[in-house]
Amino acid sequence: DAHLKSTLFGHPIGLYILFFTEMWERFSYYGMRALLVLYMTTETLGDARGPGLGWTSQEALALYGWYTMLVYVMSIPGGMIADKLLGQKKAVLLGAVILCIGHGVLVFTETWAFYTGLGLVILGVGLLKPNISTMVGGLYPQGDIRRDKGFSIFYIGINTGSLLATLIIGFVVAQWGWHAGFGLAGIAMVLGLVVYLWGQKYLTHVGNLEVQDIKEEEESSYGTLFQNLLISKKQLTVTIALAILSLFGWYSLGWGYGLLFIFLTVIAALMMMIYKELDSQQDKDRFLVLLLSFIMVIIFWGAYEQAGGLMNLYADTKTDRMLLGMQVPTVMFQSLNAGFIIIFAAIVASYWAKRKLKGKEASSIFKMAIGIIIMGFGFLFMVFATMEFEKVGSSSMLWLVMAYLFHTIGELCISPVALSFITKLSPVKYASLMMGVYFAATGLGNKVAGILGESASELGEYAVFLGILVFTIIVGTLFLMLLKPLKRLTHGAEDNEK
Ligand code: GLN
């Protein structure tokens, strides 16, 4: 009907509904996230912003690491629920409602409210984030060249939310205290829910549970997947090997790593089951390419996410932040990334679209490999920064600005591109699950980033930054060398896009 045919700036109106829903969701997520560590480490007495939890920074960072990882890992069950039970559209709705409740609970000052609120946010993001991303893909027919650009526009929404939140929430907390800050996140999420409900008429054709899926249930549900595991000896062997590795990890490195290995085991088993379950060689090959590209995703975010950790500390303690006689607050550096995204997203997307139309190489794997290399180059500036610090005892802000610029351009080559790529390559019946696995991979990257960041206290920043620079460039180059075989395995999923 008419609602579905109308477009704005060449894209379906549904894109803008999802844009604003996700913008408010990310506002609440990044706003709350910005407060989290500060709130946990603030003393229980005598702070103008109200009592904090009085934790040590190590305790706070540990919870923060688990929280940011779990938020994305829950995208796997979130995706499964969409594929098998609700469809993406209802899963997003449920996620949004749970998020409103979760942020609402955080307004209360009791300890139970803190944990309950965090738990609900984890569940809510898990249901909303992967499924809203899959819905963006659903707006475009296969082979539609606008899809990549649609995801870039969507990505601008994400970062507008994050930029607004990080600029505003600090002031709100300074004025009215912590729980007002959490409340603001809650209000943002309510706005997101309102936009989503209002815009339903533009989304009638996407994110629905496929009717034939239910009929096929008998043959291809997750239930039979688990039976497959018992059938194949090869799979069982690999799973047992990984399980043993998990136990080993548990004993030698602590329960945190043990859990991480167990989690990896479960994912590996799940992926093997799905691979076996796919009926055509084309689906199998495409699935394999997706999994391989997730290696790039983990490495990318593992390096990139130094932003909030090591680079943040570097800005705080080793950078000369005087500008026009005033000290630039450390947190301002965290807004650079979102700002750069908003400026460069359209430019980068148009560049790739033009290249593609000219018939030059612009496949997703190519862009992702280039993205990793560009992001890696950003660390060259951090290496220069540490060298300057060694010489004169402080380093220029410009190094950080340049590093964030390269990180952002790299992010634009990999992150919206990967979202789009997943919606092109995933087998339809596992589309949401694969999006969930992607976000879980980014969550894993976050965890890797934390581990790398911690190692700097032993190895020094210079070694860590240089190591990341060299490693990411090698990985990117390797994927460029593998481009041809990998593209062959996609069976032309990106050819003839018009
Ligand atoms: N910054 C992006 C977002 O919030 C990417 C996050 C991710 O992929 N882990 O959507």
Provide key terms for this protein.
498 residues, mainly alpha, two-stranded antiparallel ribbon, two-stranded parallel sheet, 6 strands, binds glutamine, peptide transport, protein transport, membrane, transmembrane
What layout of secondary structure does this protein have?
Elements: H1 2-5, E1 7-8, E2 11-12, H2 13-41, H3 57-73, H4 75-105, H5 111-138, H6 146-176, H7 178-198, H8 211-220, H9 222-231, H10 233-253, H11 255-277, H12 281-304, H13 310-317, E3 319-320, E4 322-323, E5 326-327, H14 333-357, H15 364-392, E6 395-396, H16 397-425, H17 431-459, H18 461-481, H19 483-489
Parallel strand pairs: 3-6
Antiparallel strand pairs: 1-2, 4-5
Helix pairs in contact: 2-3, 2-5, 2-6, 2-7, 3-5, 3-17, 4-5, 4-7, 4-17, 5-16, 5-17, 6-7, 6-14, 6-16, 9-11, 10-11, 12-15, 12-16, 12-17, 12-18, 14-16, 15-16, 15-18, 17-18
The structure holds glutamine.
InterPro entries: Dipep/tripep_permease (IPR005279), MFS_dom (IPR020846), MFS_trans_sf (IPR036259), MFS_Transporters (IPR050171), POT_fam (IPR000109), PTR2_symporter_CS (IPR018456)
Protein name: Oligopeptide:H+ symporter
Keywords: Cell membrane, Membrane, Peptide transport, Protein transport, Transmembrane, Transmembrane helix, Transport
Describe this structure in words.
It is built from 19 helices and six strands. With 498 residues, the chain is mainly α. It has a two-stranded antiparallel sheet with strand order 1-2. Strands 3-6 form a two-stranded parallel sheet. Strand 4 (322-323) and strand 5 form a beta hairpin. The longest helix has 31 residues, at 75-105. The protein is globular and about 60 Å long. The two termini are 24 Å apart. The structure holds glutamine. Glutamine binds next to loops.
